[in-house]
């Protein structure tokens, strides 16, 4: 039984998601983005937690 909780940051620089293993991407979206030249672009994995992190980081007005 795997009881490890996600505690490592996603390997995508612009992603706020947590993953179970370091140097791991939370999704194929992050893996594909990080392989491109615009790896610093905002994450598009679509995870709710990540979206919250992005919103806070950008400080967009509500
Ligand atoms: Zn993400
Ligand atoms: Zn990610």
What tags apply to this protein structure?
29% helix; 2 helices; mainly alpha; globular; 62 residues; binds zinc ion
Number of strands: 2
Give the strand order of the largest sheet, numbering strands 1, 2, ... along the chain.
1-2
Percent of residues in helical segments?
A: 25-40%
Name the helix and strand elements from N-terminus to C-terminus, one letter apiece: EEHH
**What's the gyration radius in Å?**
12 Å
Major beta sheet summary: 2 strands, antiparallel
| Rough outline | globular
Arithmetic mean pLDDT:
79
Termini gap: 42 Å
Q: How many discrete structural domains?
A: 1
Low-confidence stretches: none
User: How many helical elements?
Assistant: 2
Architecture blueprint of SSEs:
Layout: E1 8-9, E2 18-19, H1 28-34, H2 48-58
Antiparallel strand pairs: 1-2
The structure holds zinc ion (2 copies).
Residues 10, 15, 17, 26, 30, 43, 45, 47, 50 line the site of one zinc ion.
